[in-house]
Specification:
- By secondary structure, the protein is mainly alpha-helical.
- It has one domain (1-57).
- Helix content is 36%, strand content 0%.
- It has helices at residues 8-16, 26-37.
- It comes from Kitasatospora setae (strain ATCC 33774 / DSM 43861 / JCM 3304 / KCC A-0304 / NBRC 14216 / KM-6054) (Streptomyces setae).
- This is PPM-type phosphatase domain-containing protein.
Length: 58
């Protein structure tokens, strides 16, 4: 999440440093991500997109 007055590289490093589970409900994944990166007093809206890859049987 980009923050005002913060270099975008710092924000990207924070996001890429998250270790999130690959399974479980997507709602839990989103909640955990927001808790890890979003300050409680965020001034702007936040949008997250999550997707899970499903492998097809060969």
């Amino acid at each position: 999440m980009e923050r005002r007055g913060e270099d975008i590289d710092v924000s990207l490093a924070r996001l890429s440093g998250l270790r999130l589970p690959a399974d479980g409900p997507l709602d839990s994944l989103l909640d955990g991500t927001l808790a890890a990166i979003a300050p409680q007093d965020a001034e702007d809206d936040i949008a997250l997109l999550v997707a899970r890859v499903r492998h097809r049987p060969s």
